[in-house]
Write a structure and sequence with these properties.
Blueprint (H helix, E strand, L loop, with lengths): L1 H4 L7 H6 L8 H4 L20 H10 L5 H19 L6 H14 L1
Helix pairs in contact: 5-6
């Protein structure tokens, strides 16, 4: 009854197979990222490649010294952050990243 009331018509199987989605749901997660050789971070370790390594490096950089955290973010760049956080990011880390970027600005 609800479908009839809203004037929607169900798609048949042929219509489903012919249509291509115009926009992927998560563009960053669908890309294949280039694996570059690890670069050195100013924190003294290798560039993090997993969320756990990023958290360890992030916590190793004191919050009262935003330049070290900023250096970590700039070393990773957007591509590195997409690779480490392909789907979701902890809100606390997101807030810390924004705060570090704001303090160095």
């Amino acid at each position: 009854d609800i479908v009839k009331a809203s004037n929607l018509k169900p798609l048949n199987r042929q219509e489903l197979l012919e249509t291509q989605p115009s926009q992927p749901w998560n563009v960053a997660a669908g890309d294949v990222f280039e694996q570059s050789p690890p670069r050195m971070v100013k924190l003294g370790g290798e560039v993090p490649t997993t969320q756990q390594e990023f958290m360890r490096a992030w916590r190793g950089a004191p919050a009262d010294n935003p330049n070290k955290r900023y250096g970590l973010i700039m070393t990773l760049r957007t591509e590195g952050l997409k690779r480490i956080f392909p789907v979701q990011m902890n809100m606390e880390i997101l807030g810390d990243i924004i705060q570090a970027l704001n303090q160095v600005r």
